[in-house]
Amino acid sequence: MTTCAIGVMLPRDIEATRVAEFAVRAEELGFDELWVVEDLGFRGGIAQATAVLALTERIRVGIGILPAGARNAAFAAMELATLAQLFPGRVDAGIGHGMPEWMRSVGAWPQRPLRALEEHVTTVRALLAGGEVGGVRLDATSVPADPPPLLLGVRGPKSLALSGRVADGTVLAEPVAPEYARAALGQIAASDHRVVAYNVGVVAADGAAARAAARPALAAIGEPDWAPHIAPLPFAAEFAALRARCADGAEFARAMPDEWVAQLALAGTAAEVRARIDELAAAGVHSSVFIPVGDPVAALSSLAAVLE
């Protein structure tokens, strides 16, 4: 049995009327964590986290991620402090740069992204602890007794090193193979540092069918932003060559070998996926988070087979 927590991601495009159903069902099935996402044009992270926390009693809720450039640090600290007081011990706060093209489109991409993220996180942390920054502090009644852990959702060596210096953990976006987890931890270079790994997830009695269902969700990983995820893999050169020959991500996803899908997603039988999660845990991952494929609520039941 795996030694790491197992979570699920609330899909960014799930119908609003099904959020409650998804959250309650995830808790009923025994998942340890539920992560919400804040992608431009979809839904806000704080609002989603608040709703899910209110709808459930036990499951831990992670926010992955809040783009630092889009929020004033003092107001971000107020929001997170409120969640930590209302739902003590159940909140993880992920903060990151945000996707550069999204942030530029709303005029929120800083001139020095690394410095801006460091200043944002250190200010939020100080305020949550009751400190004062630039003449601003939270009222004593608003300082949480148990501040939420701050995790950076980042990729790239400089940003991962920053996470190791200033954060309690790191959220690694999909795909996270054990090789990438180890490489990232080497760049994080910190002890007692939590690692959360997102991966496309499909579990079925027929492992080949599960991997076939996961393929379309892997179409984007050939784009340049995903290069750090692929570089540590033994088939990185073949991966790049195949992607270059394909007209688009959809063709690439159809063409990639089945064994690549098995390494780029948590897809297969329950036993196969449990074994893969154990490999991730051995590589240093503390929380393994499924990104469901297909109908999100229906997917929860099949994914939960790994919890048995």
CATH class: Alpha Beta
Binned, the helix content reads: 40-55%
Q: What are the segments in which pLDDT stays under 50 over at least 5 consecutive residues? A: none
Using the CA coordinates, give the radius of gyration: 19 Å
Spatial order of the strands forming the largest sheet: 1-2-3-4-5-6-7-9
Tell me the strand percentage band.
15-25%
**Coarse morphology:** globular
Structural class: alpha/beta
**What is the CATH T-level topology?**
TIM Barrel
* Structural domains: how many: 1
Main pleated-sheet profile: 8 strands, parallel, barrel
CATH architecture: Alpha-Beta Barrel
SSE sequence, one letter per element: EHEHEHEHHEHEHEHHHHHEHEH
What's the count of strands?
9
Mean pLDDT across the residues is 96
CATH evolutionary superfamily: Luciferase-like domain
Helical segment tally?
A: 14
Distance between the termini: 9 Å
